[in-house]
Design goal:
about 625 residues, alpha+beta, Beta-Lactamase, 4 domains, about 50% helix
């Protein structure tokens, strides 16, 4: 005993130490994993930043190339006659503007001194190009500080970015030369950078919250998913709008980006698309790119915590689990302590307890035997009573139907007779189900003609369902034989047709039930053989379909209809055993059962069974 106690104590101490060490390494591992994950996330963002930068550069080259193709058009030599140029190049201009997807709505021509000669305006809704007043494009010239550099040395693809009313623009340049290779002027295309961002970068996807943004050398936002942020200095202008926020990390970010060509870092900032920005920890990567005369920093920011949520949650759950284990060890220690106190008493009374257990076991066996005998007696008595009750109900049903026909002109009496008939039929159905499930004799299965057995069962039920139900029977003869009990088929048909009748009796249209028996197609047979090993060697099958024109079975209860005692009817209309009996019979013979139902389209019960072909 002392040796056992010592072993238990050592196990408790070892388990406690193990849990404490595990908690320590879990916390340490969390720190390592978090650093590794952050570094991995920053590497991914840096690669994404390089990709975005290349996309921007390539897209800008494509737009300049499109402007170059437009300039090749010979009609531009008529620079003094924009109406003639527009007339001859209407289709070309329309295609050009339409290809830009709303990124530009103006195109103008200036002479070598920078004086505007003519301008065109693009209406994206009407898809038309018109001649515009040169005064309307004057802001594009006045705010473009790179234009003078172009006139002095015409080598640039495009200008640096500039702002008009807090909207960012970029001018594309294309020189036009005369026949003697002298510069006649410049074709200039102002590009709306926010529209460009929406077309190419707005849908840039990360697995967590984040987005790309572009700033110029003055740390002014050029492109951003929040249009209100465009034209703002990332620190100075934001301080004017949100004076209560902390910008210390943004100042460090600004300084770091201005002194490095690319990099990655973690800093505190805000999501500017929120009504009230809340401080968050971000991971970021950036790279400076040149697009013509524009020098931009492309940055992608992502939510640090959201990226590490899975790791944080895992470590928290692991720590909680270890703490719970530690508590369990403590509880277990207390339990051992109490157990030892009782152990001495239990040892002294061991023999007495064993004797009491033997007596208790013997008594339990006697009770079980008594209960089994009692249940067998109750089962036999129940079967006898239900059988007699069924014999009583048969003449009641028959005579009530005769009375209904005889007194059809008396609505009051007819209603009472219908109540009697309904109750008697429910009682007969209940007694049939009880008899079915309480049979003690061994089942006797025979090879029976499927067509004949289903035909007999269908015509039997036809005699007892209401006359207003339109029951159509289509049974192909000589389909073959199958091994089953005929009473099972009758019970199957009875419950399915009764269920179909009950589903249709409340509707305004004539209740219709269709019973069809025909050979199963090869395609269907091969499909059901895949899921049933027992019938994989069978070659011939017969399909029984029972279809009604009722309201259908709702999809939310379709899986429950075969459960025992499940019913959607009132207490005096259904017991919930009918379809359970159907499912039990199908399972007994390992037949195939399927239910096809659509709301307001009726329901079809489909049963497929293997048969021997007729000789």
């Amino acid at each position: 005993m002392k040796r056992t106690n010592k072993i238990v104590n050592l196990m408790i101490i070892a388990m406690t130490l193990f849990i404490i060490v595990s908690v320590f390494f879990a916390i340490r591992g969390f720190s390592v994993i978090r650093k590794t994950t952050t570094a991995s996330g920053q590497d991914f963002l840096l690669q994404s930043t390089e990709y975005v930068g290349k996309v921007i550069q390539l897209s800008m080259k494509n737009r300049h190339q499109a402007l170059n193709y437009l300039a090749i058009d010979g009609n531009l030599k008529n620079s003094d006659d924009p109406a003639a140029y527009l007339k001859n190049s209407q289709s070309t201009l329309t295609t050009f503007f339409d290809s830009l997807n709303g990124e530009a709505d103006a195109l103008f021509y200036i002479d070598p001194n920078g004086t505007p000669i003519y301008a065109f305006h693009w209406d994206s809704e009407k898809k038309t190009v018109t001649i515009a007043d040169t005064q309307t494009i004057q802001p594009y010239i006045n705010h473009d500080l790179s234009l003078r550099q172009l006139l002095d040395k015409p080598t640039a693809q495009n200008s640096a970015s500039y702002f008009i009313d807090k909207k960012a623009y970029l001018n594309f340049y294309q020189e036009i030369k005369t026949a003697d290779d002298k510069i006649d002027g410049y074709l200039i295309l102002p590009l709306h950078l926010q529209t460009f961002y929406q077309n190419f970068l707005q849908d840039f996807e990360l697995d967590y919250k984040g987005y790309p943004m572009i700033k110029d050398q003055s740390m002014t936002v050029v492109m951003h998913p929040v249009a209100e942020q465009v034209g703002l200095d990332i620190v100075t202008d934001r301080e004017k709008i949100y004076p209560d926020l902390d910008y210390s990390d943004l100042k460090k970010l600004e300084k770091y980006q201005l002194s490095h060509s690319s990099g990655k870092l973690t800093y505190k900032s805000y999501w500017w698309d929120e009504d009230v920005p809340k401080e968050v920890l971000k991971i970021s990567a950036f790279e400076w790119i040149d697009v013509g005369l524009a020098h931009w920093v492309v940055a992608i920011n992502a939510d640090y915590n959201e990226r590490n949520d899975d790791i944080i949650n895992f470590v928290i759950m692991l720590s909680l689990l270890l703490v719970v284990l530690l508590l369990l060890v403590g509880i277990f220690s207390l339990f051992i302590h109490n157990f030892r106190k009782k152990e001495r008493i239990e040892e002294e009374n061991k023999q007495l307890i064993e004797k009491q257990q033997q007596q208790k076991l013997q008594h339990q066996l006697e009770l079980e035997l008594y209960q089994r005998n009692k249940m067998e007696t109750v089962g036999l008595l129940t079967t006898s009573i239900v059988h007699d009750m069924n014999n009583f109900l048969t003449p009641i049903i028959g005579n009530t139907q005769l009375l209904l026909e005889e007194y059809s002109d008396d609505p009051v009496l007819e209603e009472d007779l219908e109540d009697i008939l309904h109750s008697a039929q429910k009682g007969q159905q209940l007694s049939a189900n009880v008899l079915r499930f309480s049979k003690t004799q061994q089942s006797v299965q025979e090879w029976l003609d499927v067509s004949a057995a289903i035909g007999v069962a269908t015509h039997l039920i036809k005699e007892i369902i209401p006359k207003n139900v339109q029951l159509s029977i289509s049974i192909q003869e000589n389909l073959g034989t199958a091994k089953f009990e005929e009473i099972d088929v009758q019970n199957l048909i009875y419950n399915l047709i009764t269920n179909a009748y009950q589903a249709t009796k409340e509707q305004s249209t004539i209740p219709k039930i269709q019973v069809t028996v025909a050979p199963t197609s090869k395609e269907v047979a091969e499909e059901i053989k895949k899921d049933n090993i027992r019938i994989q060697s069978e070659e011939h099958f017969v399909t029984l379909e029972i279809t009604d024109n009722g309201p259908g079975i709702p999809s939310d209860i379709r899986e429950k209809i075969f459960e025992p005692f499940f019913t959607t009817k009132s207490a005096d209309e259904g017991t919930g055993l009918g379809l359970f009996a159907v499912a039990s019979i199908i399972a007994k013979y390992e037949w195939y059962l399927d239910v096809q139902s659509e709301t307001n389209q009726g329901t079809t019960f489909l049963i497929i069974l293997p048969v021997r072909p007729p000789q």
